[in-house]
Write a structure and sequence with these properties.
With 445 residues, the protein is an alpha+beta fold. Helices cover 45% and strands 13% of the residues. The protein folds into 2 domains: 31-156 and 315-380, 3-Layer(aba) Sandwich (D-Maltodextrin-Binding Protein, domain 2); 157-314 and 387-434, Periplasmic binding protein-like II (D-Maltodextrin-Binding Protein, domain 2), CATH 3.40.190. The N and C termini lie far apart (71 Å).
Length: 445
Amino acid sequence: MKLKMHVSALALAASTLALGAQANAWTLEEAAKPYAGTELEVLFLDRPGYNAAIQMLPEFEAATGIKVNYTVVPYENALGEQVRDFAAGGDLDIALIDLVWIGNFAENGWIVPSETFINNAELADPALAMDDFFPLVLNAFGSWNGVNYGLPFDNYSGLLFYNRCMLEAAGFDKPPATWQEVMDVYGPALTKDGKYAYALQSKRNETQSADSFARFLWPFGGSFLNAEFKSNLLSPESQAGLQFRQDLMKFMPEGIVAYDHAETVNAFAQGDVAMITEWSAFYSTVVNPETSAVADCVEIAPEPTGPAGRKPALGGFSLAVASQADEAEQAAGWLFIQWVTSAANAGRYLEMGGVPARKSAYADPALAEKFKFIPALVESWQDGVPEFRPRFAEWPAITEIVQEWGTKMMLGEVSIEEGSKMIGEKMEAVLAEAGYYDGKKPLAQ
């Protein structure tokens, strides 16, 4: 009888503890109570991933009482507007950080390390699961010099979009695995009758430096800089990649140097080109019959490999808490960032047009079947280069140099070697003035 009573007492105690734990379990609603009525300011872009977040906002606002005020701006304006706001101690409470802006924002002290909030039990969702983010993406988009600041949001990888129907008509039953195959086999077979094998977005803006120039450095073993932060563009590997890009132009539409993303995607969607390397974010455009004449023929593969392997383009953003926000705004900002990038919301965000960086979001076979880009995207995020474009604060100045001389190369106004030399000299001048060569700044990119 005593034993039974003892067991019953233990069971009662365990039950009481469990109920207490449930009562004290973390919830977004409870965490947000002190910040109800707080208003947040953030910039968004007019892209599917942001539209998805906007559609989800009413749920967050209803649960928390926190208002998220967003301003939609063109990508080209997003950096300048945020820099001006942060430099003046303005109104933005959340930073929208492109891959190549993280060094600038972190070094200027405009963003708060995530650890500040992750170590706060009142704000940190126990289900945050930082290890559920693809490590490459978490590092590349949200971290700088070993410190994490932002959680990945609307992230992309360069993928090979190909028209299965055009390839089959030319006798191919699969896409090219290597860039050399594109040059030697697919290019000649698919470029005829006013159609082209490939289109490479190359307009003289960030598209030229990120989507065109850099895309042919890394797979060939090249890079912008060597270990000493001197130009590596005259190395045999970099020269081989840039020359390959030049030679590949014979299989691209005339005027390719004026093509931005819109023109490239449209050329593919109208059946004028068989293959493009584009961001996963454009998937919904090319498979929608209302915007694509080839929707039923679209297939997705990883970018082709070069001599140095597969080094896909990386693009996208992270969201971080702004240091200029007051204490309540910082807490509310973290709750929003944590919520919108959460594993719980990742599947829905994907369904609505966003591209989450959560491994768990891509584990559902039904989603992988519905969104053909998922297997290729997951493969691409296994191996990539965080510094695909150097992420330091000087990139905005360097990208303008690359845009100018990279365009001149493609137009034949300068040779590959001469253009590389000019970029290298001007790039090193920017880095010297910034203090990389005299030890004032660490060699971090």
